[in-house]
Protein backbone atom coordinates (compact mmCIF):
# COMPACT_ATOMS: atom_id res chain seq x y z
CA UNK A 1 0.00 0.00 0.00
CA UNK A 2 2.95 2.34 0.69
CA UNK A 3 4.07 2.16 -2.97
CA UNK A 4 0.51 2.95 -4.06
CA UNK A 5 0.42 6.04 -1.87
CA UNK A 6 3.75 7.20 -3.29
CA UNK A 7 2.84 6.86 -6.94
CA UNK A 8 -0.54 8.46 -6.45
CA UNK A 9 1.24 11.32 -4.74
CA UNK A 10 3.60 11.66 -7.68
CA UNK A 11 0.72 11.90 -10.13
CA UNK A 12 -0.86 14.78 -8.26
CA UNK A 13 2.51 16.38 -7.58
CA UNK A 14 3.17 16.69 -11.29
CA UNK A 15 -0.37 17.77 -12.04
CA UNK A 16 -0.07 20.56 -9.52
CA UNK A 17 -3.23 19.48 -7.69
CA UNK A 18 -3.78 19.48 -3.92
CA UNK A 19 -6.54 17.53 -2.21
CA UNK A 20 -7.19 17.08 1.50
CA UNK A 21 -9.94 14.51 0.98
CA UNK A 22 -9.15 10.81 0.83
CA UNK A 23 -8.68 9.37 -2.67
CA UNK A 24 -9.51 5.90 -3.90
CA UNK A 25 -6.20 4.23 -4.79
CA UNK A 26 -5.38 1.83 -7.60
CA UNK A 27 -3.43 -1.02 -6.02
CA UNK A 28 -2.09 -2.20 -9.36
CA UNK A 29 -0.17 0.98 -10.24
CA UNK A 30 3.65 0.97 -10.13
CA UNK A 31 6.45 3.48 -10.57
CA UNK A 32 7.34 1.98 -13.96
CA UNK A 33 3.77 2.18 -15.24
CA UNK A 34 3.48 5.76 -13.94
CA UNK A 35 6.58 6.82 -15.88
CA UNK A 36 5.50 4.95 -19.01
CA UNK A 37 2.09 6.59 -18.87
CA UNK A 38 3.68 10.02 -18.38
CA UNK A 39 5.90 9.46 -21.43
CA UNK A 40 3.04 8.24 -23.63
CA UNK A 41 1.06 11.39 -22.79
CA UNK A 42 3.94 13.72 -23.64
CA UNK A 43 2.78 16.07 -26.38
CA UNK A 44 5.16 17.09 -29.14
CA UNK A 45 4.92 17.25 -32.93
CA UNK A 46 8.63 16.53 -33.39
CA UNK A 47 10.91 13.75 -32.13
CA UNK A 48 10.44 13.19 -28.43
CA UNK A 49 13.45 12.42 -26.22
CA UNK A 50 14.13 8.69 -26.00
CA UNK A 51 12.31 6.91 -23.22
CA UNK A 52 15.46 5.98 -21.29
CA UNK A 53 16.64 9.57 -20.81
CA UNK A 54 13.09 10.65 -20.00
CA UNK A 55 12.80 7.93 -17.38
CA UNK A 56 16.10 8.77 -15.69
CA UNK A 57 15.35 12.48 -15.87
CA UNK A 58 11.89 12.10 -14.37
CA UNK A 59 13.08 9.88 -11.51
CA UNK A 60 15.80 12.41 -10.66
CA UNK A 61 13.31 15.27 -10.92
CA UNK A 62 10.89 13.56 -8.52
CA UNK A 63 13.65 12.93 -6.00
CA UNK A 64 14.79 16.56 -6.14
CA UNK A 65 11.20 17.74 -5.88
CA UNK A 66 10.72 15.53 -2.83
CA UNK A 67 13.82 17.15 -1.28
CA UNK A 68 12.30 20.63 -1.86
CA UNK A 69 15.23 21.62 -4.07
CA UNK A 70 13.13 22.67 -7.08
CA UNK A 71 10.68 25.46 -7.73
CA UNK A 72 7.08 24.72 -8.62
CA UNK A 73 7.60 25.42 -12.34
CA UNK A 74 7.40 21.75 -13.32
CA UNK A 75 10.13 22.24 -15.93
CA UNK A 76 12.58 19.47 -16.81
CA UNK A 77 15.38 20.11 -19.33
CA UNK A 78 16.91 17.04 -20.97
CA UNK A 79 20.16 17.07 -22.97
CA UNK A 80 21.06 13.86 -24.79
CA UNK A 81 24.78 13.86 -25.58
CA UNK A 82 24.53 10.53 -27.37
CA UNK A 83 23.29 12.45 -30.40
CA UNK A 84 25.30 14.33 -33.00
CA UNK A 85 25.84 17.99 -32.16
CA UNK A 86 24.22 18.73 -35.51
CA UNK A 87 20.93 17.32 -34.20
CA UNK A 88 18.49 19.01 -31.87
CA UNK A 89 19.30 17.25 -28.61
CA UNK A 90 17.86 19.57 -25.96
CA UNK A 91 14.25 19.32 -24.83
CA UNK A 92 12.49 21.53 -22.30
CA UNK A 93 9.47 19.72 -20.92
CA UNK A 94 6.57 21.24 -19.01
CA UNK A 95 5.63 18.27 -16.84
CA UNK A 96 2.47 19.94 -15.58
CA UNK A 97 1.18 20.33 -19.12
CA UNK A 98 2.76 17.07 -20.39
CA UNK A 99 4.33 18.73 -23.40
CA UNK A 100 7.65 19.71 -24.93
CA UNK A 101 7.82 23.50 -25.01
CA UNK A 102 11.25 23.85 -26.63
CA UNK A 103 13.56 21.69 -28.76
CA UNK A 104 16.92 22.92 -30.01
CA UNK A 105 20.59 22.44 -30.70
CA UNK A 106 23.00 22.57 -27.77
CA UNK A 107 26.81 22.63 -27.70
CA UNK A 108 29.22 20.47 -25.75
CA UNK A 109 32.74 21.31 -24.53
CA UNK A 110 35.62 21.43 -26.99
CA UNK A 111 37.53 18.68 -25.15
CA UNK A 112 34.44 16.50 -24.94
CA UNK A 113 34.53 15.66 -28.64
CA UNK A 114 34.09 16.97 -32.17
CA UNK A 115 30.70 16.24 -33.71
CA UNK A 116 29.93 13.68 -31.01
CA UNK A 117 30.43 14.01 -27.26
CA UNK A 118 32.70 11.29 -25.87
CA UNK A 119 34.70 12.50 -22.86
CA UNK A 120 33.45 14.33 -19.78
CA UNK A 121 35.11 16.03 -16.85
CA UNK A 122 34.34 17.87 -13.63
CA UNK A 123 37.86 19.33 -13.41
CA UNK A 124 38.43 23.11 -13.62
CA UNK A 125 39.95 24.30 -16.92
CA UNK A 126 39.19 20.97 -18.59
CA UNK A 127 37.02 22.68 -21.25
CA UNK A 128 34.76 19.65 -21.07
CA UNK A 129 31.08 19.03 -20.47
CA UNK A 130 29.92 17.47 -17.21
CA UNK A 131 27.19 14.88 -16.88
CA UNK A 132 24.31 14.63 -14.45
CA UNK A 133 21.62 16.64 -12.73
CA UNK A 134 21.77 20.40 -12.29
CA UNK A 135 19.56 22.90 -10.57
CA UNK A 136 19.38 26.23 -12.37
CA UNK A 137 20.46 29.32 -10.51
CA UNK A 138 20.21 33.05 -11.12
CA UNK A 139 20.59 34.96 -14.37
CA UNK A 140 23.36 37.49 -14.97
CA UNK A 141 24.88 39.54 -17.79
CA UNK A 142 28.34 38.39 -18.86
CA UNK A 143 30.48 38.36 -21.98
CA UNK A 144 27.78 36.28 -23.72
CA UNK A 145 24.97 38.60 -22.64
CA UNK A 146 22.13 37.18 -20.55
CA UNK A 147 23.33 33.89 -19.05
CA UNK A 148 22.14 31.34 -16.49
CA UNK A 149 24.15 29.98 -13.57
CA UNK A 150 24.03 26.20 -13.11
CA UNK A 151 24.61 24.31 -9.89
CA UNK A 152 25.77 20.75 -10.44
CA UNK A 153 24.51 18.56 -7.62
CA UNK A 154 26.26 15.26 -8.30
CA UNK A 155 29.62 15.07 -6.45
CA UNK A 156 32.47 13.94 -8.64
CA UNK A 157 30.56 14.54 -11.85
CA UNK A 158 29.35 18.14 -12.01
CA UNK A 159 29.57 19.76 -8.57
CA UNK A 160 32.35 22.09 -9.80
CA UNK A 161 30.07 23.69 -12.39
CA UNK A 162 29.74 27.05 -10.65
CA UNK A 163 33.47 27.20 -9.90
CA UNK A 164 34.17 26.37 -13.55
CA UNK A 165 31.66 29.01 -14.78
CA UNK A 166 29.69 26.32 -16.62
CA UNK A 167 26.53 28.22 -17.49
CA UNK A 168 23.81 28.29 -20.13
CA UNK A 169 24.20 31.13 -22.63
CA UNK A 170 23.47 31.94 -26.24
CA UNK A 171 26.20 31.51 -28.87
CA UNK A 172 26.45 32.32 -32.58
CA UNK A 173 28.27 29.03 -33.19
CA UNK A 174 25.24 26.97 -32.14
CA UNK A 175 23.67 27.28 -35.56
CA UNK A 176 23.24 25.14 -38.71
CA UNK A 177 25.23 27.70 -40.72
CA UNK A 178 28.28 26.79 -38.64
CA UNK A 179 27.75 23.13 -39.56
CA UNK A 180 27.97 23.96 -43.26
CA UNK A 181 31.39 25.49 -42.77
CA UNK A 182 32.89 23.06 -40.23
CA UNK A 183 30.83 19.88 -40.40
CA UNK A 184 29.52 20.43 -36.87
CA UNK A 185 28.30 23.25 -34.66
CA UNK A 186 30.82 25.08 -32.54
CA UNK A 187 31.94 23.95 -29.11
CA UNK A 188 32.08 25.68 -25.76
CA UNK A 189 34.43 25.57 -22.75
CA UNK A 190 32.00 23.14 -21.15
CA UNK A 191 28.82 25.20 -21.19
CA UNK A 192 25.54 23.86 -22.65
CA UNK A 193 25.36 26.79 -25.08
CA UNK A 194 22.15 27.30 -27.04
CA UNK A 195 21.22 29.21 -30.24
CA UNK A 196 21.02 32.97 -30.01
CA UNK A 197 17.47 33.02 -31.34
CA UNK A 198 15.13 33.10 -28.38
CA UNK A 199 17.88 32.44 -25.83
CA UNK A 200 16.81 35.24 -23.51
CA UNK A 201 13.27 33.92 -23.18
CA UNK A 202 14.55 30.38 -22.58
CA UNK A 203 17.06 31.45 -19.93
CA UNK A 204 14.48 33.53 -18.08
CA UNK A 205 12.00 30.64 -18.12
CA UNK A 206 14.52 28.10 -16.76
CA UNK A 207 16.03 30.33 -14.08
CA UNK A 208 15.68 29.83 -10.34
CA UNK A 209 15.56 26.16 -9.43
CA UNK A 210 14.34 24.21 -12.42
CA UNK A 211 15.83 20.78 -13.16
CA UNK A 212 18.35 20.01 -15.92
CA UNK A 213 19.71 16.57 -16.80
CA UNK A 214 22.70 16.09 -19.13
CA UNK A 215 22.96 12.46 -20.18
CA UNK A 216 25.47 10.11 -21.76
CA UNK A 217 25.78 6.36 -20.95
CA UNK A 218 29.14 6.77 -19.24
CA UNK A 219 29.80 3.61 -17.19
CA UNK A 220 31.25 5.44 -14.21
CA UNK A 221 28.33 7.85 -14.08
CA UNK A 222 25.68 5.16 -14.41
CA UNK A 223 27.33 3.08 -11.69
CA UNK A 224 27.61 5.93 -9.18
CA UNK A 225 24.82 8.43 -9.78
CA UNK A 226 22.21 8.17 -7.04
CA UNK A 227 19.74 10.34 -8.94
CA UNK A 228 19.93 8.60 -12.32
CA UNK A 229 20.17 5.09 -10.84
CA UNK A 230 16.69 3.61 -10.86
CA UNK A 231 17.20 1.21 -7.96
CA UNK A 232 18.59 3.72 -5.47
CA UNK A 233 16.18 6.44 -6.59
CA UNK A 234 13.21 4.14 -6.22
CA UNK A 235 14.30 3.28 -2.69
CA UNK A 236 14.10 6.97 -1.80
CA UNK A 237 10.76 7.46 -3.51
CA UNK A 238 9.22 4.41 -1.88
CA UNK A 239 9.77 6.02 1.53
CA UNK A 240 8.46 9.43 0.56
CA UNK A 241 5.53 10.98 2.37
CA UNK A 242 3.72 13.16 -0.14
CA UNK A 243 0.82 15.38 0.97
CA UNK A 244 -2.19 15.19 -1.36
Walkthrough of the structure:
With about 240 residues, this protein is α+β, with helices and mostly antiparallel strands. The protein has eight helices and seven strands. The protein has helices at about 1-15, 30-40, 50-65, 160-165, 175-180, 200-205, 220-225, 230-235; strands at about 75-80, 90-95, 100-105, 130-140, 145-150, 165-170, 210-215. Strands 3-2-1-7-4-5-6 form a seven-stranded mixed sheet. Residues about 1-30 and about 240-244 have low confidence and may be disordered.
Provide keyphrases for this structure.
244 residues, alpha+beta, L,D-transpeptidase catalytic domain-like, seven-stranded mixed sheet, 7 strands, disordered C terminus, signal, YkuD_2, Murein L,D-transpeptidase catalytic domain family protein
Briefly, what is this?
This protein has helices at 2-15, 31-40, 51-66, 161-164, 176-182, 199-206, 219-224, 230-237; strands spanning 75-80, 90-94, 99-104, 132-142, 145-152, 167-169, 211-215. The protein is an alpha+beta fold and 244 residues long.
